[in-house]
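Note to self: the last two entries modelled the partners one at a time, which told us nothing about the interface. This time every component goes in together.
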Amino acid sequence: MSQLVWNGLFVGSFYALVALGYSMVYGIIKLLNFAHGDLYMLGAFIGFAVLGAAGGVSAAMALPLLLAVLVLTMGVTGLAGVLLERVAYRRLRGAPRLSLLITAVGASFALEYGMRAAAGADPRVYPVRLGGTSVEVLGARITLQQLALVAVAVVLMLGLNLLVTRSREGRAMRAVALDPKAAALMGIDVDAVISRTFFLGSALAGAAGVMAGAHYGKIDFMMGFLIGLKAFTAAVIGGIGNIPGTMLGGLLLGLLESFGTFWLGGEWRDVFAFGVLILFLTVRPTGLLGERVTERV
Amino acid sequence: MTATVPQGTPPGAPSSARPRGAGPRSIASRLMDNRWAGLVGLAVALLAPFVNATPYALSVMTSAAIFVMLAAGLNIVVGYCGLLDLGYAAFFAVGAYTSGVLSTRFDLPLVATLPAVLVVTVLAGLIIGAPTLRLRSDYLAIVTLGFGEIIRVTANNLDVTGGPSGIYGIPGLTGGPVSMYYVTVLVVAVAVVGAARLGRSRLGRAWRFVREDEDAAEAMGVHTYKIKMAAYVAGAIWGGLAGVLFAAHLSAISPGSFTFLQSALVLMAVVLGGMGSIRGVVVGAVIISVLPELLRDLADYRFLAFGVLLITVMLVRPQGLWPARSREVAQ
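The predicted structure of the combined assembly is written out below.
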């Protein structure tokens, strides 16, 4: 039982990290960035390349090295997100929503199969594998490395929340999300704020990618597809556009999946998750913490 | 105001929807407007086996015709009504599996399974459309994506659908590949004409109104929820019937045929040809289904090229290769 809860929270913290980028981008330009899951994949591969370049790693140094790689990868993935927005999305900002969505689907395809062309179709094995000692907490077996990964995820999320609620940049973001035109009139550089939002969201996805690579040990070019869907589900459950809500949604989805797998068997896990999504959209489309949005004409 | 701007054209991009007769028109543009274009296309499809009737060519052409039907169905949802459906292969799968399971379990001819296929696909359309069509339209995109996965995973896990290896030995519609090709072409032609006629009907006008401005449509008394549901269910029916043709053509189906890739390719055909333009969509579908056969050597880069092409089309020519002429503007 407590093992199920722990597994759920562990997977849920990955979902939450990826879902945050989804949610932030949606909050600020009302775009479902389909390519977001592929930025997670990109992060995993960048981390793989950096670790490969660093050479052999002793087991004792694995965790500190991984943290350094994590920071580096976050920077690169963030820049990739900024580039994506600049190339594919910015010119279409005034265009109908459908054009933007289709462009995002195209970007997702380009990233997936671009990576396939660059790194091959076969899964790659991560050079660092976190395993090791485990402790028992309330009957759940928890490895220290899992604990470390969750701690990193929590720190990243708290940092993001501080950034958005307390800093000047965060205030600008919230202003643009509320009303881009008025924000521009108040002297906020809207394009720069959107770029920064993409940077933050993509960096978090990249971090999740490296962590997933280190934990599961295998990465491939399609790994972002399913987690992109799951992250969206998490964002909808929590309330898309709402940062604490999205974190909550991620953890909740992780728990739901963990218990769903236990009850129904692993092969039905994804069906269960999307079933929950559809149910949620029927009952409470604004999510747990989302506010009711009135569409302005 | 927005009603005169064709869907998919960003402000500032060159608009091709100038009113008919305003200014000189190029030869290409006049050819595109030619009313015989559809019949010429049908004639080409009917005469193609006389040029090349190897089993391989016939198989490719039959697949292309089925793909045209899929694109025509998705065009109703995406092109006419402006709802982005990313799980269209789900309806294709529902149709193929329903006819496949019924015909192999109960030894029915495929035609006898059609009523059941219609009922099941309409039900599937209602189940997935009912909760999502009330919401913002971009939620629909992801929910349909999830729905596509649900259908594929379910087909993969159930015993009745044969699990990962699928269903074998589905009876064909006709005796041989040549007659199968002609039956397919005729069914697809009827489906394409039907979709075009639907698009020009009262319902089609309402669809385009919803696409251009949902709030204005609602204010004018269009029941937008019902209208969107009609588009979604129509798309489901087209997809389901295409699935029956698919099952008859290949005689074996497996979950691998109904991945997200398939949905994305159909969408690609619609976008490339021109959303809402039935002629464009047919041309787009033929290009998308035949091009990979011609580009076998580039197999690894095919989908990369597709992705880049989607972005480029949206940035450079959002109205597609053969855009729809807005009839409302002309009057």
